[in-house]
Write a structure and sequence with these properties.
It is elongated, with a radius of gyration of 21 Å. 73% of the residues lie in helices and 0% in strands. The two termini are 23 Å apart. By secondary structure, it is mainly α. It is built from six helices and no strands.
Length: 171
């Protein structure tokens, strides 16, 4: 025994329902969306080169799918604390101060996330009220803009539910 704490014992595993909501569901949804995007791309290639007819809406739809994949995938990343961090210095701060710095970082994430969610809600509401649609595929603009709103709300909830792990920087 070296006297070092066992990190596995100090990690608080999240309840199964949280892991399903914030990790399993987003990863599954992202996987299915990528499969749909690949199918659209494949259909467009076949249509273009075999029948000399391009699916004019394919590129726009694939951009919207990628947008959803990014924001939904970020939920799982936030829940597991796997996002990019600049912790070169904060990792070397002694424990009581490190927890304070980690807490401030989590608080900043939550505060900025709430701000972005409010602004996104305003934008989505404006698009819904105006009835705007995309240029090529005529998709209601609420759909792509809702990706940010739903993604950021779920990310903030993920950080709040895992606040203890964020404070300790142990996932």
């Amino acid at each position: 025994m070296t006297g070092e704490p066992n990190l596995q014992e100090s990690v608080d595993p999240p309840p199964a329902w949280q892991r399903r909501l914030f990790v399993t569901a987003p990863r599954s949804l992202t996987a299915w969306l990528i499969i749909v995007a690949i199918a659209i791309n494949f259909a467009n290639v076949i249509s273009r080169y075999l029948f000399d007819f391009a699916l004019f809406w394919a590129e726009e739809i694939m951009v919207f799918i990628v947008l959803w994949c990014v924001f939904i995938g970020a939920v799982a990343v936030s829940f597991d604390g796997q996002h990019l961090k600049m912790d070169l210095l904060s990792a070397r701060i002694p424990p009581p101060w490190r927890n304070i710095v980690n807490g401030l970082a989590a608080l900043a994430f939550v505060g900025l996330g709430v701000f972005v969610a409010v602004q996104s809600w305003i934008a989505v509401s404006l698009f819904a009220g105006a009835g705007d649609v995309s240029v090529t595929a005529s998709v209601p603009m609420v759909i792509p803009h809702a990706a940010l709103l739903i993604g950021i709300v779920l990310m903030v909830l993920a950080v709040v539910f895992r606040l203890r792990a964020y404070l300790r920087n142990r996932f």
